[in-house]
Structures are given as structure tokens and as C-alpha cells.
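hey m, so remember when u said the C-alpha cells were messed up on ur end? i reran from scratch. heres the input so u can diff it against urs
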Amino acid sequence: MIKEQKKQIRRKALACRNALTEPERERGKLLITERILGHQWYYLSDTILGFVSYGSEICTTEILESALQDGKNVYVPKVEDGKMEFYRMFSLSELKNGYKKIPEPAGDTDRYVFEPEHADKTLLLMPGSAFDPLGNRMGYGGGFYDRYLADKESLRLRSIGIGFRCQQVEQVPVEVTDVKPYQVILV
């Protein structure tokens, strides 16, 4: 029942996101970049766990490039054997199409190792298909972020779900395994 509800909500939110015009996308990219780069968690972090935008997702290119220029350790996801890990990246040009053709690191650089005592120096950015006013997030159905964060509460406390305002829905159905970001910023 919940799976079917999520499918319908995801389909509707993604259709709205896919229908955004190029000027709306550009405005969203500029606003989210400004909001993240100006966020205190960004300033306080030496490690950024970002994501490489794909398809109609809000563009994260400038955030990743700025973090690299600012001397931060930047890691992005790679899916291996059905599990998501974060690998260090030094340039967007080194990424190759991976899981579902999403740009990923090769997996030959340092893998991010979670250390609870270092979580307050780390910022995690999360994509999503839909978000609700209570901060619940729905991904794309794979549960990668839910599984990744399941045993990393101190990292979840430094996580921000980002997207376009049109991705906000009235209510995201929540399952016991769902892990919501600590903050959501929609532009």
C-alpha cells in the first residue's frame, strides 16, 4: 500500500520537476548554491558528502566545484553491489557514468569513512524525488540513503535534503526504515 502511494507521489513530483523551464532550473541552481555555500554547516565543515546531479535534479555542479576550490574534502556516491559508498573526487571531469548512468567516481580514490566524532565537520547533501513540510524525504525507491544513514545518527544531524519547490508534496508516506534529512531546502 505505502509502496504504491510512494510511486504515485514520486511520479507526480518528478513530472513537475521535469517540466521546469531552463530559466527556472538556472534560478534554482543559483539559489541552492547561494543557500548551501552561505550555510553555517558548510563553513564549519571540512568534508562535503555531495551528490552529482542527474537528469532534472537541481544542479550541484557549482556547490561541488566551490567546495573543491575552498579546500574541502569532497566525496560523492558510487553504487557497488547494491550499496552506496562515498568516494573522494578532485574534479568533475574524472567522473564516469555508473549506476543508472549517474556520474560516479571510479572507486579508486579514498572512500569516506564515517567517524562519529568527526560528523560535526561533515555536511551531507541529499537528493530526492519529493519532500513534505515536516522534512520527510522520498528518494527514487532504492533506499540507498536510508540504508547508508541507518547507523549514522550524528551524520544525519548534519544532512540537508535539497531540491526544487515544486517537489514539495502535502505528505510523504513514511516507513520505519525511512531516514529523513535534518533539514530540507527547496528553492
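this time it looks ok to me. The longest helix spans residues 2-18. if urs says something different then somethings off w ur setup not the seq
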